[in-house]
Design goal:
By secondary structure, the chain is an alpha+beta fold. It is about 30% helix and about 20% strand.
Length: about 475
């Protein structure tokens, strides 16, 4: 859910009549949804049944303890189209989305059901759902400029809580008009992802996963009538109004970066702060796009109803947890629009001892940190020399570079393309990854190791601009003669 609203600490419904009991169920579901969890666990018809299940109705009102779920008993919205038309609300029909809006005709609005139609097979593929088994699946959406119009026609129920942007319950979703066409589509796909997960998977999982996947799949490209979802945007101009990358950059610069465990521990109310959306997106993007973690991350869609969801994921990561935590640091510390997760993936295999004399290593210009396969002893000095000519850009013409870098352009305070080195300890104990504090090698230098570890090398370039690099450079390393 994408909203900013306050959940009352206490909400009482006095009557046990069938009608008022239904209202109680609806409100319990709505309040849980507002908190960022989406919907409550299985709702039971009578108060006594809550008690027998070990969860009282007041427990269900505590919105920070469970995932979003499909709520049985809440009917789909029905629309009196004649009444809606009198309020200036019109219908735009697609196969997977029936959209009602009070906005005037605009080609970018008329195509929204088609965007949603194209999203459906992408959702099915992502979550391993057979589309043929959901041939009649459809949602109803309400795109609103003036919420009062929808309230007067009963299409924005008064028992819904206040929300700033979007909200969804089962097969219905509501969106307020946004400042940009991109973010309007993003919000539709975000809420649509919640709807797909709740109605087909029966749950959205815990807050970090629920909002992370919705943000991941909501981040899209719509070009020439074709939809691509789950992208890392190339530039902020491609996603006006979104701002997740910039927010992570700012928080990192302010020393307020979160660790992965902190993201995984988000409560149901965490997403009342928009920063939580940025962190949830970042976690989902790294895990989904990384070749080492993608299969394990996507398998989580089969566990969204498990109460030990996050613990299950930790077990899936297993011995890779330390590596993942470090890659998260590298991702957050270097994040850019267009960050190339596969090219920035790091091989953490421990290196072996170097041969006597010079050891030769080839470094590719179009990748991030590369494992030299050489382990350096602690407390020693090593000579490094480099040579080669490689490409660091191809526009407006090819930019050729040597290991000393291109001094007409700098990145992170160093010449573009200059050779960098980092020695990752056999037993990392520093909170900050060595990959965020590299040494400049250039054409050659002598490095001194504090502790034993594996040597890593790369050229200095943005993680978003590796795909236009080409070529290699040769690096030689040996133990320095000045060692005793």
């Amino acid at each position: 859910m994408m909203q900013q609203s306050t959940v009352p600490e206490v909400f009482e419904v006095a009557s046990d009549s069938r009608k008022e009991n239904f209202v109680r169920i609806v409100l319990a579901a709505i309040l849980a949804a507002v908190a960022g969890l989406g919907l409550t666990p299985r709702l039971l018809a009578q108060e006594g049944e809550y008690e027998r299940a070990g969860r009282s109705l007041s427990d269900l009102m505590k919105v920070d303890d469970g995932p979003g779920r499909f709520v049985p008993g809440i009917p789909r919205s029905t629309v009196d189209e004649a009444k809606a038309s009198k309020e200036g609300i019109r219908k735009i029909a697609g196969r997977r989305l029936i959209l009602f809006t009070d906005l005037p005709y605009d080609p970018l609005i008329e195509e929204l059901p088609e965007v949603f139609d194209q999203a459906f097979p992408i959702w099915c593929n992502y979550f391993s759902v057979d589309p043929a088994s959901r041939a009649t699946w459809q949602m109803t959406g309400f795109l609103m400029k003036d919420g009062d119009r929808f309230r007067r026609t009963g299409l924005l129920p008064r028992h819904l809580p206040p929300f700033r942007n979007g909200f969804s319950v089962n097969y219905d979703l509501w969106l307020y008009e946004q400042e940009t066409p991109y973010y309007r589509r993003h919000l539709l796909l975000h809420e649509g992802t919640h709807g797909f997960m709740n109605t087909i998977l029966r749950s959205c999982g815990p807050p970090w996963y629920m909002e992370g996947t919705a943000e991941l799949l909501g981040t899209h490209q719509w070009k020439d009538g074709r939809l691509t979802m789950g992208i890392v945007p190339k530039s902020r101009d491609d996603v006006p109004g979104w701002g997740r990358v910039r927010r992570v950059q700012d928080l990192f610069a302010e020393g307020k970066a979160l660790s992965l465990p902190q993201v995984f521990d988000f409560s149901g109310t965490a997403h009342q702060d928009n920063d939580a959306y940025a962190w949830s997106w970042a976690a989902a993007a790294l895990l989904d796009l990384h070749p080492r973690y993608q299969v394990r991350f996507r398998s989580l869609s089969r566990a969204v109803e498990d109460r030990d969801f996050t613990e299950r994921f930790r077990k899936l990561i297993g011995d890779d947890w330390r590596a993942l935590a470090e890659e998260w640091q590298v991702f957050v510390g270097n994040i850019e629009y267009g960050y190339d997760v596969p090219r920035m993936a790091i091989d953490f295999t421990p290196g072996g001892p170097p041969r006597s004399g010079w050891n030769l290593i080839r470094v590719e210009a179009d990748r991030g940190w590369q494992n030299s396969r050489i382990r350096l002893d602690g407390g020693k000095a090593y000579e490094i020399r480099a040579q080669g000519r490689y490409q660091v850009a191809d526009q407006p013409a090819i930019w050729w570079c040597e290991p000393g870098g291109v001094t007409i352009r700098y990145y992170h305070g160093r010449p573009l393309g200059v050779l960098l080195a980092a020695v990752r300890s056999d037993d990392p104990h520093n909170e900050t990854s060595v990959f965020l504090q590299p040494e400049t090698v250039g054409l050659g230098t002598t490095i001194r190791t504090e502790s034993a570890g594996t040597l890593y090398l790369r050229i200095n370039d943005s993680a978003a601009e590796l795909d236009d690099n080409a070529g290699t450079l040769d690096v030689a390393i040996r133990e320095a003669t000045e060692n005793p």
